[in-house]
Specification:
The chain is mostly helical. The chain is built from 22 helices and 4 strands. Helices cover about 60% and strands about 0% of the residues. Helix 3 packs across helix 4. It starts with 9 loop residues before the first helix and ends with a helix.
Length: about 500
């Protein structure tokens, strides 16, 4: 804790950090120092690194609410979508403050990790959520959601409330599992399973990303006589047309160039900066809906909008499985608090979230294709640390085969159950099983975990502690957070 005299010192505000190494792209030989968890940072550096963490996280945080609440999902109103983005930013800021702290709550238990990490939204619920939401838009009117006369989606806050309500109830399982010893969790979710799940999550979500890149998942995708996003849009284009593909490409190539040519500070924020470039280009070309930003309130908070909560039985099992996925992929201080501050400000300032609602779907698609690709690559990287014994190859083959099948033929299991009776509980249970089987990473996990626990190790398996307790993530997380490094023994192998 600094004393009063330190507030006037250069060391307190600026320190002796080499700031040029962060912003100069030509200083390739500059060494970036490592800071210990409890080390005091100069105020300017803490704010700078906090802003860097926040910008690196923004793309990953805003993607799930846009996909679930936008035309790909529940087709919520622009104001509701803006609220979802703001709420995610605010809650992630609060979660980050909690995680970088370490509060003892009993013997051997703590609230928070005490290391630098940034809490973000999870992609594990996105694909299963989108599948459930779109299944509720039924032409016969029996679902939670309704279609307009032209076949387009009408706003459906009920289905989003079902997601929130079911996830809140099922989250009790995740809280209970937090009290399990880390050794048991790591045994249940070794790198073989974690890497496979991340690989399938990334591959599955690229589908929604590329749909948005081409113009969105609305009626214009299936009715090629309609313009995207609608015939009434200020600058509509046909789905898959060159202008829309070009908008997405402007984001995609900007991310690549910024990461190749930018200084360290820019590299770490390349996804957000690439998205920003795409927003600027789309605004300059007349694709941007400025009324959404003008109509947004100046400020918001997490209780300003509500949804009709409900618990849907056919979502319980898929969400339990999704929580297991989140636990398996969980991946750390003053810069963390600064990051939380910036995320909080981005959230309460409503017009910041409104910018992402107003941008064309192609701009979002250009970013999310890259982002979801990085999720898949993170899975491949984790799998690189697996000792590919006969046992590991068998588990991977058994689980990934059906996972890949669900990716290439999404509805292959849809006609397995033929029950059409009045028992809603049975119908919901059968729908839940179908949803799990047709969701690539969920069916992969359902197969991989039991096999991993039941199949004995062979003579070609490495059984030392380094491998048995290998952390489930290495390097930057798919959403921009920090992660651990492999043990020394595995560094030599790699």
């Amino acid at each position: 804790m600094p004393v009063l005299s330190q507030f006037a010192s250069r060391q307190f505000w600026l320190g002796d950090y080499n700031y040029a190494a962060l912003i100069n792209p030509f200083r390739k030989d500059a060494e970036i120092p490592f800071f210990a968890p409890d080390e005091n940072l100069p105020v300017a550096l803490a704010l700078l690194l906090g802003l860097q963490h926040a910008l690196a996280m923004v793309g990953g945080i805003i993607s799930p609410p846009i996909l679930l609440g936008g035309s790909s999902g529940a087709a919520l109103s622009a104001s509701d979508q803006q609220y979802l983005i703001s709420a995610c930013l605010i809650v992630c800021a609060m979660g980050t403050c909690l995680q970088v702290s370490r509060i003892r709550i009993g013997k051997g238990f703590y609230l928070g990790t005490g290391v630098l990490n940034v809490t973000g939204t999870s992609f594990a619920f996105v694909s299963v959520g989108l599948t459930y939401i779109n299944n509720e838009f039924k032409t016969d009117g029996t679902g939670l959601c309704q279609l307009a006369s032209d076949g387009s989606k009408l706003p459906c806050p009920k289905v989003y409330g079902a997601l929130l309500g079911t996830a809140s109830v099922v989250s009790v399982l995740a809280i209970a599992m937090a009290f399990l010893p880390p050794r048991r969790l790591k045994k249940m979710f070794p790198p073989l399973i974690t890497g496979s799940l991340l690989l399938l999550i990334g591959i599955t979500l690229v589908t929604s990303g590329i749909n948005n890149w081409a113009g969105g998942a609305g009626s214009c995708k299936t009715d090629l006589t309609m313009l995207c996003p609608s015939n009434a849009a200020p600058h509509g284009e046909y789905w898959g047309s060159a202008p829309l593909i070009g908008l997405g490409f402007s984001v995609f190539i900007s991310i690549i160039l910024l990461d190749l040519l930018g200084p360290p500070l820019v590299k770490n924020c390349s996804v957000f900066l690439g998205l920003l470039i795409g927003i600027i280009i789309s605004a300059g070309c007349g694709y941007f809906d400025g009324s959404t930003i003008r109509d947004a309130p100046s400020g918001t908070f997490i209780w300003t909008t509500t949804f009709p909560l409900s618990v849907r039985g056919d979502l319980v099992l898929p969400f339990i499985a999704a929580y297991f996925v989140i636990i398996s992929e969980t991946i750390g201080n003053i810069s963390g608090y600064a990051c939380a501050l910036f995320l909080f400000l981005m959230g309460v300032i409503s017009k910041f979230g409104a910018i992402f609602v107003a941008m064309p779907a192609s701009v979002l698609g250009g970013m999310t294709v890259f982002l979801f690709g990085s999720v898949a690559v993170a899975g491949v990287r984790i799998l690189a640390y697996v000792t590919w014994s006969r046992r590991a190859r068998f588990i991977a083959t058994a689980s990934l085969s059906l996972g890949f099948a669900a990716v290439v033929v999404p509805g292959w299991f849809s006609n397995f159950f033929t029950y059409a009776g009045p028992n809603e509980s049975l119908s919901g249970f059968l729908n839940a099983i179908t949803l799990i089987v047709e969701e690539s990473y969920l069916i992969c996990m359902i197969i991989a975990i039991p096999l991993n626990l039941l199949i004995p190790y062979g003579s070609d398996d490495i059984l030392d502690n380094d491998v048995a307790l290998l952390p489930t993530t290495f390097g930057p997380s798919p959403t921009g957070g920090e992660a651990s490094t492999p043990p020394a023994s595995l560094k030599k192998e790699a």
